[in-house]
C-alpha cells in the first residue's frame, strides 16, 4: 500500500504540473505538421496543406513535403508521433462538431495536448520511478529523484513543447527498465517488452537506432555479468534472451519500414533521406538559390560535437545544470556504486557520444529553434536518471555548506526549467532576428532570465534596449506568458469565446498551480526516515 502511495503521489504531482505548463497547442511547427499527417490519414486529405499563395522560404521547406509514390506529396517525417496523436485528432474533430464556437484546429490541438501528451509524460515520470527502483533505490529516493527529474531537467520543457523527445524517452526508458527487470527475474515477457519499446522509439525517429543499440548493449552486459561464473554453460540462455529481445524489436521497426515503402517506394528509404535527395530534383525548388553540396551535412565534425557541449546557445551543461555536479559526485563515488548502475552510466555516456557524432556535421545540429540541443537532451536525461538518485543520497549524507550547496544546485535547475516554459520558446531568437541590442551573443538562457525580469518590471534598464517598433512586434506574440488561460485571453480578439473561457480557466489554473506547489513542497521536504541514515548506493 505504501509503495502505491509513493507512485500515486508522484503521478498526481506530475499531472498538476503538466496541467499548469500546458499551452493547449502543439508548441512548434514540426508537431503541427505531424498532427496534419494524423488528420490526413483518416480524412483522406493531402498531408501537405499549403495555399497557392504560400511560397517556400528555401529549398527543402518542410511545409511542402516531398514527392513520393505516384507523385503524391508527403510530409517527410517519421510516422510514430502521428500514430500516437491520431485518437486525439479524431476526438478533437468530433468535439468541434459538438461545440463549433471553438475552431476545429484548436479543438484538435487541445485534445492531443491534454489527452495524449499529458498521459504519456506522466507515464514517463512513473517509468523513471520504476527504473530508479530497479536500480535499488528505495521508494522515497525514487520518488524524490523522479520529481527532480521532471522539474529539474529539460524533460519539463519538452513536456510543454511536444517534439518527439519525451515520447522517445518514454520508450527508451521502458526498454532499459524491462531489460534490467528481465536480468533479475528472467521473465521472457520483459525481454520482449524491452525490444518492443525500442521498436517504438525507432518508429518515432530513425536515429533511435542508437538508443536501440545502447539498450541492447546494456541488456547483454547485465546478463553476461550475471552469468560470469558459468558463462559457457549459459550460452543457450543468453541466445534465448537475445532472440526474445530481437523478436520484440521487429514489429514496430517493420511497421516503420512498411510505412516508408508505401510512401516512398523502398523499405530502405526515409523521409529525411528523400528530402535530401530532392533538394536538387524537386521542380518546386526551381529558381531558388542552391544549397551547399551534401546539405545538411556541411559542418566540420568538431562544430556540432563541441557546440553541443560548450556553445552558450545550446550547451547540455547549461540547459541541464544538474549534469556536471552529478557527474562529479558519481566520479567520486564510482567504486561504491552498484554494477548495474555503472554499466548503465557507461552505456549512456557512449549513447551521448554517438548522438554527438551522428549530428556533428548537420547544419542544424542543435535543433534550430529548439530549446537546448534537442537531438542530445534525451541522451542527457537518460544519463541523469540514476545520477540524480546518487546525488540525492549523497546530499542526504551531508550537513552544512555542502548540503546547502547541493540543495541550491537543485533549486537553480528547477528555476531554469520553469523559466523555459513560461514564455514563448522562440522569444529570444525573435529578439536576435530583429536586432535587439544585447542579444547577439546567443546566451539564450541568460536572455530568458532578463525577459522574465522585464515581464515583472518593464522599467529595468535591460528592458529599454529595444526600440518602440521592436517592442511592438515582440509584444504582439512573443513577450508574454504562454500558459493556456493566458493564451486564450490573448487569442480572444480573434476567437471571442476564448475571452470567457480564459477568465474561467484562469481561476482553476491558479488553484492547480497552488496545489502543485503545495504537493511538490511536501515531497521535497526531506522526512526524518530519509534523513536518519545514508542509503546504500
TrEMBL record:
It comes from the Bacteria. Keywords: Membrane, Transmembrane, Transmembrane helix. The chain crosses the membrane at residues 111-132, 144-161, 168-185, 205-226, 238-259, 316-334, 341-359, 379-398, 405-423, 504-526. The keyword Transcription regulation does not apply. The keyword Calcium does not apply. This is Glycosyltransferase RgtA/B/C/D-like domain-containing protein.
Amino acid at each position: 500500500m505504501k509503495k502505491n502511495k509513493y507512485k500515486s503521489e508522484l503521478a498526481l504531482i506530475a499531472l498538476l504540473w503538466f496541467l499548469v505548463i500546458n499551452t493547449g497547442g502543439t508548441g512548434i511547427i514540426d508537431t503541427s505538421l505531424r498532427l496534419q499527417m494524423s488528420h490526413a490519414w483518416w480524412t483522406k486529405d493531402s498531408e501537405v496543406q499549403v495555399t497557392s499563395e504560400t511560397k517556400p522560404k528555401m529549398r527543402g521547406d518542410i511545409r511542402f513535403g516531398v514527392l513520393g509514390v505516384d507523385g503524391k506529396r508527403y510530409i517527410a517525417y517519421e510516422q510514430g508521433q502521428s500514430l500516437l496523436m491520431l485518437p486525439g485528432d479524431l476526438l478533437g474533430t468530433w468535439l468541434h462538431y459538438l461545440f463549433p464556437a471553438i475552431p476545429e484546429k484548436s479543438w484538435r490541438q487541445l485534445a492531443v495536448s491534454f489527452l495524449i501528451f499529458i498521459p504519456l509524460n506522466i507515464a514517463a515520470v512513473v517509468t523513471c520511478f520504476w527504473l530508479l527502483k530497479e536500480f535499488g533505490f528505495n521508494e522515497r529516493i525514487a520518488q524524490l529523484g523522479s520529481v527532480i527529474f521532471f522539474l529539474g531537467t529539460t524533460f519539463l520543457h519538452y513536456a510543454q513543447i511536444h517534439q518527439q523527445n519525451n515520447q522517445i524517452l518514454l520508450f527508451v526508458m521502458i526498454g532499459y527498465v524491462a531489460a534490467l527487470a528481465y536480468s533479475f527475474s528472467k521473465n521472457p515477457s520483459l525481454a520482449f517488452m524491452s525490444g518492443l519499446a525500442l521498436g517504438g522509439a525507432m518508429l518515432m525517429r530513425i536515429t533511435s537506432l542508437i538508443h536501440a543499440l545502447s539498450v541492447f548493449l546494456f541488456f547483454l552486459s547485465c546478463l553476461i555479468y550475471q552469468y560470469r561464473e558459468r558463462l559457457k554453460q549459459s550460452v543457450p540462455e543468453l541466445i534465448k534472451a537475445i532472440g526474445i529481445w530481437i523478436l520484440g524489436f521487429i514489429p514496430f521497426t517493420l511497421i516503420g519500414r512498411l510505412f516508408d515503402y508505401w510512401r516512398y517506394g523502398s523499405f530502405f528509404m526515409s523521409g529525411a533521406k528523400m528530402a535530401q535527395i530532392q533538394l536538387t530534383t524537386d521542380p518546386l525548388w526551381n529558381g531558388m538559390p542552391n544549397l551547399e553540396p551534401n546539405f545538411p551535412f556541411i559542418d566540420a565534425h568538431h562544430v556540432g560535437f563541441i557546440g553541443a557541449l560548450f556553445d552558450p546557445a545550446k550547451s547540455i551543461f547549461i540547459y541541464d545544470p544538474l549534469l556536471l555536479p552529478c557527474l562529479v559526485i558519481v566520479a567520486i563515488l564510482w567504486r561504491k556504486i552498484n554494477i548495474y548502475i555503472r554499466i548503465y552510466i557507461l552505456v549512456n555516456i557512449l549513447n551521448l557520444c554517438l548522438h554527438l557524432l551522428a549530428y556533428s556535421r548537420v547544419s542544424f545540429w542543435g535543433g534550430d529553434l529548439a530549446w537546448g540541443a534537442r537531438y542530445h537532451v534525451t541522451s542527457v536525461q537518460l544519463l541523469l536518471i540514476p545520477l540524480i538518485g546518487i546525488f540525492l543520497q549523497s546530499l542526504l549524507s551531508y550537513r552544512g555548506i555542502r548540503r546547502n550547496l547541493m540543495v541550491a544546485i537543485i533549486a537553480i535547475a528547477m528555476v531554469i526549467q520553469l523559466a523555459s516554459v513560461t514564455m514563448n520558446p522562440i522569444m529570444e531568437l525573435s529578439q536576435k532576428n530583429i536586432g535587439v541590442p544585447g542579444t547577439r551573443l546567443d546566451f539564450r538562457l541568460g536572455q530568458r532570465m532578463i525577459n522574465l525580469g522585464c515581464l515583472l518590471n518593464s522599467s529595468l534598464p535591460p528592458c529599454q534596449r529595444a526600440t518602440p517598433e521592436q517592442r511592438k512586434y515582440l509584444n504582439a506574440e512573443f513577450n508574454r506568458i504562454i500558459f493556456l488561460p493566458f493564451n486564450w485571453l490573448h487569442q480572444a480578439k480573434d476567437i471571442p469565446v476564448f475571452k470567457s473561457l480564459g477568465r474561467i480557466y484562469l481561476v482553476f489554473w491558479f488553484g492547480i498551480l497552488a496545489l502543485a506547489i503545495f504537493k511538490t513542497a511536501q515531497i521535497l521536504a526531506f522526512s526524518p526516515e530519509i534523513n536518519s541514515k545514508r542509503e546504500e548506493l
